[in-house]
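Quiz preparation item.
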């Protein structure tokens, strides 16, 4: 066991504070990673505040981890000391079910994957995330960060990047397809970048036009304010794919009406409260409402390689660990463009 510094929420809704945690000894197939950067995802806030149900406390959030390998187990073949690597939302799964065998570890059928934090590992111990100095992870749940991406802008790709890349690929975003991205935040800004790089015609649907210049700079072809009722009349029946990145209830009927025949609205934001869907909205044009989690390990590596090829890093604001609580408040106020990243050297 190794003792490392970390920032943890000691109880639900409590401010995060500096503490120490124990990391397991490096096993035969484990990789020890010196964390260099950790992104702050809205999911961290939901979980630290018990918004998605009872959590495990003290809780060390963080599932957007970028760092350098500092030690490997005797059986490790994929990585060596000095490699640039990342860890995303999961650190294990059953490895036996049909989904795991198909590279869909995020949809593991035997109780789901083991999440990077706020979960219990196979050893019965709680998992702790990336707001810390080091992490030990099985090599099969580590990905390589290409040289074309700096570690700070790569860290958010481990959640925000794969969460948007996976559904865009699954629903075939590309040339000839019209994609709308709802919300221009941590997820949405990567959705715009990736959809544009895939060759789709991209529209941002945001509450106001406040971020229009940013949206167009990031790759959007069009930008509309959803606070304007004319938007929903003008864009009715327009889109093949609507990628909803907002973690709040919406008037889903209004958005579904923006889909073309056989279009799909994919939800990657997860509200804390139940939402209502009016099925009649979908019947007329064979429209679909769906959802998507993250991606599997292989697809996460594919996403990183794609982002490196197209020079797609996250738009970040780098902060010291002593500003994590301030960052949480600003995320909730929508005051970040577009992802806070913790410099782990300050932990």
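Solution:
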């Amino acid at each position: 066991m190794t003792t490392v510094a970390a920032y943890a929420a000691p109880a639900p809704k409590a401010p995060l504070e500096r503490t120490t945690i124990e990391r397991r000894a490096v096993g035969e197939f484990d990789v020890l990673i010196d964390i260099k950067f950790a992104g702050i995802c809205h999911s961290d806030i939901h979980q630290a505040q018990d918004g998605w149900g009872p959590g495990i406390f003290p809780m060390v959030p963080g599932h957007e981890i970028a760092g350098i390998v500092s030690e490997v187990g005797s059986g490790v073949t994929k990585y060596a000391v000095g490699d640039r690597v990342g860890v995303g939302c999961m650190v294990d799964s059953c490895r036996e079910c049909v989904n795991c065998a198909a590279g869909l570890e995020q949809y593991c059928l035997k109780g789901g994957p083991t999440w990077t934090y706020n979960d219990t590992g196979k050893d019965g111990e709680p998992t702790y995330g990336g707001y810390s100095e080091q992490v030990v992870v099985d090599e099969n749940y580590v990905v390589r960060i290409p040289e074309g991406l700096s570690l700070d802008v790569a860290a958010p790709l481990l959640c925000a990047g794969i969460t948007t890349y996976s559904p865009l690929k699954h629903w075939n975003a590309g040339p000839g397809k019209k994609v709308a991205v709802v919300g221009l935040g941590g997820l949405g800004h990567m959705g715009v970048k990736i959809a544009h790089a895939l060759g789709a015609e991209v529209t941002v649907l945001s509450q106001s036009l406040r971020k229009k210049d940013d949206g167009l700079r990031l790759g959007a072809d069009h930008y509309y304010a959803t606070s304007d009722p004319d938007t929903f009349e003008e864009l009715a029946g327009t889109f093949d794919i609507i990628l909803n990145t907002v973690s709040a209830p919406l008037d889903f009927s209004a958005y579904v009406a923006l889909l073309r025949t056989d279009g799909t609205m994919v939800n990657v934001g997860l509200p804390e409260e139940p939402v209502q869907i009016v099925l009649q909205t979908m019947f007329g044009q064979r429209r679909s409402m769906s959802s998507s989690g993250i991606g599997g390990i292989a697809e996460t590596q594919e996403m990183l390689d794609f982002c490196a090829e197209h020079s797609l890093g996250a738009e970040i604001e780098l902060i010291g660990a002593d500003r994590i609580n301030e960052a949480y408040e600003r995320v909730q106020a929508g005051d970040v463009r577009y992802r806070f990243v913790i410099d782990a050297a300050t932990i």
